[in-house]
Design a protein that fits this description.
- By secondary structure, this protein is of the alpha/beta class.
- It is about 30% helix and about 25% strand.
- Strand 20 and strand 21 form a beta hairpin.
- Helix 5 runs parallel beside helix 6.
- The chain is globular and about 70 Å long.
- The termini are far apart.
Length: about 450
């Protein structure tokens, strides 16, 4: 009997999508010429990772009999990092840290290793990209390290797994997941199959040995972690390190956290000796704000559970082109054009012959609807060339008919503005009616509620 011919399998290098035939463009990520044929012997590999259920023989339990308690956490000694993680590192957790190359991922994790080793925890730093001398040079800029930090420069995940099993460290750093290689996958490092296989092995090690593992992942040009989307679903926590290339600030954002709040943010400043925490992000973001200048408005955004004051700047001027220009930095471009259409329709202000440039000063990227009222106020201030009161903060969501809708956590936003010395707050009327009942004393803050952009135009 003739031997059955093995079928070829092609996979996308960018997203991991598999196809029985070669395709010019991936139907999932829409990348061109990204399909590669998997080796015939490895076309349908069976992962040696059994998952959490395969480590210990489990039996069904009655939900009411399960005892729930707080997870055991290890404080890193870096307050902003602990805040994003939800209070510290959970034992046996697998955390993915993504970000652009050179943004500071390795520096932050090395500082975390320094704090943990100083507290007596055994830490293993595995690097597949740098030599021990390169790591030592970076470590000398950060500070002194004790003998509890171990360095391993290795790309073979089998050797790394044996080292982790023998050493039994409390913390492991894998820098980066794209450089790790597992023989079971049978593909080159960095491909979707390799990343999926190596992450599965690391997940099994973390759960079985109760060791906390941090893996570093590079991001694609779209700003997502390179490799299959399954990678983010496998891990317990996903952190993104963001920041502009020429700026000194860095933002650590939690987009997934099984042990704490999501979308929490931590702010750092990059210095010569490493990353330094920014304990007052609102004051930091408002540094250098001009006084009594048209087009400058302070608004308040909530990142996770933290209110942060930011400055929204608008420049509206007559255009010299047939089509007026519209640009937005730090916020959604489509949202800005929508708000300008609302201003034209509801207030009768013709902006079709004007260029409009919107910027969130400080480099933060904010898509929260609460910025709508601040953007509208900044556009009106620049158009009329009249300065907005520098001691006033405003926030609220603007609808298509010009109404100002309520937002969440209004009390925390007002109190944050009061701490920085602001004397007046313009917010949605629906929030202002409940604000005094919810928060009590507002430290002398004058609260003005508006129900539409008509009323906003009157009060400013």
């Amino acid at each position: 009997m003739a031997k059955a011919k093995k079928k070829a399998v092609f996979f996308c290098r960018e997203c991991g999508y598999e196809s029985p035939k070669w395709l010019g463009q991936c139907p999932v990520c829409h990348e061109w010429d990204s399909f590669t044929e998997a080796p015939p012997a490895q076309a349908h590999i069976k992962s040696n990772v059994k998952g959490i259920a395969g480590i210990v023989q489990n039996t069904p339990k009655v939900l009411n009999e399960v005892k729930a308690g707080e997870e055991e956490r290890t404080v890193t000694g870096i307050g902003e990092l602990d805040r994003v993680l939800g209070g510290g590192i959970v034992a046996g957790s697998l955390t993915l840290v993504g970000g652009d190359p050179g943004i500071g991922k390795s520096t932050l994790l090395l500082q975390m290793c320094r704090q943990l080793s100083a507290a007596g925890h055994k830490v293993l730093y595995v690097s597949g990209e740098e030599s021990p001398k390169q790591i030592k040079m970076r470590a000398e800029r950060i500070g002194t390290f004790n003998s509890s930090l171990y360095i391993l420069c290795e790309t073979d995940l089998g050797a790394v797994s044996e080292t982790i099993t023998d050493m039994e460290p409390g913390m492991v750093i894998i820098d980066s997941i794209q450089t790790m290689y597992s023989e079971e996958a049978g593909q080159t490092p960095g491909t979707a199959g390799q990343i999926r296989e190596t992450t599965g092995i690391l997940m099994r090690l973390a759960k079985s040995l109760q060791v906390s593992i941090f893996i570093v992942g590079h991001v694609t040009k779209e700003g997502v972690v390179a490799g299959p989307k399954l990678l983010e679903h496998m891990v317990d926590t996903v952190l993104y390190f963001e920041g502009e290339g020429g700026a000194s600030y860095r933002f650590l954002r939690s987009v997934k956290n099984r042990f704490g709040p999501t979308n929490e943010i931590g702010v750092f400043e990059m210095r010569q000796d490493g990353l330094e925490e920014v304990l007052n992000p609102s004051g930091y973001m408002l540094q250098g704000k001009p006084e009594n200048e048209p087009g400058s408005v302070v608004t308040c955004s909530v990142e996770g559970t933290r209110p942060i004051l930011v400055e929204v700047q608008a420049l509206v001027c007559q255009t010299n082109f047939n089509m007026p220009r519209r640009t937005a930095a730090g916020t959604d471009y489509n949202r800005v054009t929508l708000l300008m259409a609302v201003i034209e329709k509801r207030l009768g202000i013709r902006l079709g012959g004007y260029d409009a440039y919107i910027n969130v000063a400080g480099g933060m990227k904010i898509n929260e609807p609460a910025l709508d009222l601040g953007i509208v106020a900044a556009i009106l201030s620049s158009y009329r060339n009249k300065a907005f009161d520098s001691r006033t903060v405003c926030f609220g969501e603007v609808g298509l008919v010009g109404e100002v809708r309520a937002v969440n956590l209004p009390g925390q936003r007002v109190m944050e503005a009061s701490k920085l010395g602001f004397k007046r707050c313009i917010l949605p009327k629906a929030n202002s009616q409940k604000l005094s009942f919810d928060t009590g004393d507002l430290n002398g803050m004058q609260v003005t509620g508006v129900g539409s952009i008509y009323e906003l135009l009157e009060v400013i």
